[in-house]
Structure formats: structure tokens, C-alpha cells
Design goal:
Blueprint (H helix, E strand, L loop, with lengths): L1 E2 L1 H9 L8 E6 L1 H4 L1 E2 L2 H12 L4 E5 L12 E2 L11 H5 L6 E2 L7 E5 L2 H5 L14 H7 L3 E5 L7 H9 L6 E10 L5 E9 L14 H6 L3 E6 L2 E7 H14 L12 H4 L3
Parallel strand pairs: 1-3, 2-4, 2-8, 5-9
Antiparallel strand pairs: 4-7, 6-7, 8-12, 9-10, 11-12
Helix pairs in contact: 1-3, 7-9
Length: about 260
């Protein structure tokens, strides 16, 4: 099916996302299907819907910034997490945060203030960085055609809860600032006792849906899970207090454990 702009706008309206919301989107354009006008039409719909809000998309570079390539230039470094974030950056008023591995593109109200100070963050999801600001702004996160294993926000929750063995040793990273000068900072990357702890974040989808932190919709052909940041933090933090090793396996969250919340 070929979706028109009007059809996508109707689907967005059905999600009841406030027009002044702060919305972060993890996406798979392939899952959305064919759109008249392609990805730009989808961005048009999102920007128009958030007429008084803020649209945020990941432009992460954790797969390329390392000890050998340790200079992050936000003007040229490509994203490793999809096309929408980089396309958003081409829009007038869009800005990219200066985080060397977990940058985001932001467009809309207070975009510059939202991304400010990321070059000072010493962890991927610092509480005073963009992930923390999503919480402060009562933000929403949409998983558009992709699973909750992509939920970078939960890295932040683990970090803020002080879960052990989630951050590596500090590494020197350089960031090209808007004036062309290089800022030297340190960054502690993600780590865990298991190969990729984020692959276990998907176990939270059903608890989030069950406890009202998330709702299911469709956008284009894609299944869409829309999550509330405050509720995700509350539920996940309470579970981590009971079970700090919650994400070291991919076993479903038991009804017994949920019953203790």
C-alpha cells in the first residue's frame, strides 16, 4: 500500500500525542512501508504535528568513534542508527547535539537548549544530558517499526540507578565545536557482563503495555509502541531495586516480580 500524507497525519492524530510534546523516535523506514514522497513526507507529518513541540531523533555514532577514530565532527559524522535523524538535520532550525557517541538531532521548540552542554557529558546517557531532559520534559518515545531493544533510554535508567558494571573506563574523545576548535573530553562507554545488554531491554515491552506506560498504534505499515518516559523510569527503577540484574538475561519479567511493584 502507498500511504499519502493525509493518511499518515490521521494515524498520528489517533495517537493523541500533544502538539507541544517532546517526542524521541527510534525508527525503521522499511517497516513503515511505501510513502508518497518518501521519508521527507513522514518528517513533514511529524514536524507539522509537533507544531509547538520538539522532535528528537538519534544520530548515534558509537560504531565509529573509538580509540583509533576519536574525533567527532557533528557536521560530517554519519549516523549508525537509521536515516531519519540525518534527514531531520537538513531542516531549517534543526540542531545536532555534541555528544561524541550518542548525539541526537532536535527540531522545534527549544531545540538548541535541549541539546546544549552534551559535550560535557561523560557517559552515554547522562542524567543532565538529552536522555535526562526527556524525563524532565515529560517526554514520549516512539518505537516506529523497531523493537524496544533499541530503547537507549533504558541505558540511562540503569545508569541513573547506579547499576554496577554498565560503564567502562574513561576514554579521551575530541569534539569539533561550532567555531572549528576541538574540545577534549572523556567518555565512559557502555559495558555489561553480557555481550549486549540492550538486547534484553525488549523484555520490558509487555510490562510497559500492561502497566500503562506504553500503547500500541500503527503508522504506515509499522507497528508503533508509544512510551511515556516518566512511567518507564518509575517501573524500571522499581524493578531494578528488587532485581539489579534484571537485564542480564532475556527471560520475561515474571508476574510475581511485577506484583511486588
Amino acid at each position: 500500500m502507498l500511504y499519502t500524507k493525509d493518511e499518515l497525519k490521521k494515524q498520528l492524530e489517533a495517537m493523541n500525542i500533544p502538539h507541544d510534546a517532546t517526542l524521541l523516535i527510534h525508527s525503521s523506514m522499511k517497516a513503515v512501508g511505501e510513502i508518497e514522497g518518501g521519508a521527507e513526507t513522514l518528517l513533514d507529518c511529524l514536524c507539522e504535528h509537533l507544531s509547538d513541540g520538539l522532535l528528537v531523533m538519534p544520530t548515534h555514532t558509537w560504531d565509529t568513534i573509538d580509540d583509533q577514530h576519536n574525533v567527532f565532527n557533528p557536521a560530517t559524522e554519519p549516523s549508525c542508527v537509521g536515516i531519519l535523524g540525518m534527514l531531520l538535520l537538513k531542516r531549517e532550525g534543526a540542531v545536532r547535539s555534541l555528544h561524541p557517541t550518542h548525539s541526537v538531532a532536535a527540531w522545534g521548540k527549544d531545540a538548541a537548549a535541549f541539546v546544549a552542554g552534551e559535550h560535557f557529558c561523560e557517559t552515554p546517557c547522562a542524567r543532565n544530558g538529552c536522555m535526562g531532559k526527556l524525563l524532565d520534559r515529560h517526554g514520549l518515545i516512539m518505537f516506529l517499526g523497531c523493537p524496544l531493544t533499541k530503547n537507549t533510554f533504558l541505558h540511562g535508567v540503569e545508569e541513573w540507578c547506579g547499576i554496577e558494571n554498565r560503564l567502562g573506563e574513561p576514554k579521551v574523545r575530541f569534539i569539533v565545536m561550532p567555531n572549528g576548535e576541538q574540545f577534549m573530553g572523556t567518555m565512559r562507554g557502555h559495558c555489561a557482563p553480557v555481550p549486549d545488554v540492550s538486547q534484553n531491554y525488549g523484555k520490558m515491552e509487555q510490562p510497559f503495555l500492561q502497566l500503562g506506560a506504553a500503547e500500541e498504534y500503527r503508522l504506515g505499515d509499522a507497528r508503533c509502541v508509544l512510551c511515556k518516559c516518566e512511567d518507564m523510569v518509575r517501573i524500571t527503577s522499581e524493578l531494578l531495586i528488587i532485581c539489579p540484574d534484571l537485564f542480564l538475561d532475556n527471560e520475561p519479567v515474571s508476574s510475581e516480580l511485577l506484583g511486588r511493584l
